[in-house]
Specification:
Blueprint (H helix, E strand, L loop, with lengths): L2 H27 L6 H22 L10 H14 L6 H25 L3 H29 L17 H21 L3 H21 L2 H14 L4 H23 L8 H16 L20 H5 L18 H34 L3 H20 L8 H21 L9
Helix pairs in contact: 1-2, 1-4, 1-5, 3-12, 4-14, 5-6, 5-7, 6-7, 6-13, 8-9, 8-13, 10-12, 12-13, 12-14, 13-14
Length: about 400
Amino acid sequence: MSLKMINNNKQFNGVSTAIFVLTSAVIALNPFPHTTTIYEICYYLALTLSFFYFGRKRELTFLRNPLTLPVAIFTFWAFVSLFGALDIKTSVHDFNGHLLKYIALFAMLVTFANTKKRLKILAWLVVVSVTISSAHGLYIFYVKLGQHFTRRFILSDPEYPVGPVGVMAMYAFLFGLTLCRLEKSRLLRFCLILCLTVLGVSVFAVQSRAILLAMPLVFVVMFWGNKKLLVVFLVLALGVGLFTMKRLRGNPLKVSYSPRLTINYVAFLVFKEHPIKGIGFGINTFGNPKFIDHESYRKRVPENIRSSAVISSPHDMYMGMAIRTGLPGLLLYLYILFVSLKMCVKVVSYTNDNSVKLWGYCAGSCLTLIIIYGCFNVVFLRFIEVLLCLSFSFIAICYAMTFKESKPHIN
């Protein structure tokens, strides 16, 4: 091997490490709402270095997975929907900021975090960063503000929405459980137990019905390969769920859902008028009265569910996707989720590596959490979008580890 080739390899290894460090910083900064500037600097530095790396190395291994085709078709359709958008400026902005940006992040993670060691580093960053963010929020709400421990954990800061706080805590909790099964060091396990305690308290304090509803199925996916742990965590999930519903938040069957139903019904009416291309990729277009006459639609909502709620984004990510990209866009989005879950099944079924299998179960359970939570809530926020991108990345990396490039992919 010539000296020039050795120097080039060292250069590429250095760039690869730098990109991994920067993308890791993006993941670590995600739970902190007031770090946008640092977050953006790390992201765009990583992206710039990636252009250099891919331009010189000409290796696009991140394209070699079953997600490539459905994501490409969905992206093309989302681009087509821009031409009929009600708010073109917002749609173009969100097409870049809420789709292309995460496709690029996915490409960087799959390319530069493609080892078991780096997967573990990312998992630790998720657990520690969300634990710190959760502990800080819990301290402010229950200690500094003196709220009773049975009060639902809701900070007045609009940059710290309660739903995503709970999702991040539950997501990190799943990562922490997986790390507990992988780490051999007693000290590291002790640290993980401390983190899991904080995260568990945060999930409980948020009292999100959607998360509590998702929990049993999430644990079924997580511990499908270990029936003893499955029984333990199913009992835990059901116990926490029943206690929260009965003692803290009330019977979910007796709660009024009129505000959310009003918003979702209006979204359905808008979808009926724009069934193919939707109203454009802009996330806030639906909630902007400049483009959608909310009051005229509100009058068409059945009286038994009609409310005076402010019309904002639909509390259902599937309806939200349908009104933005039409029925074709929704079906493509569902197909991406289906392919991802199918990849998880193949990973845990075919891999002989226990750590890869555990990460397969973990990524599948994390994706299941977002899929179920998204049935009842807004998910197209940075906090959850980064986690969704991270789930896809873990799935693609584990899939690549299971089916080596020298072997044909199993479809």
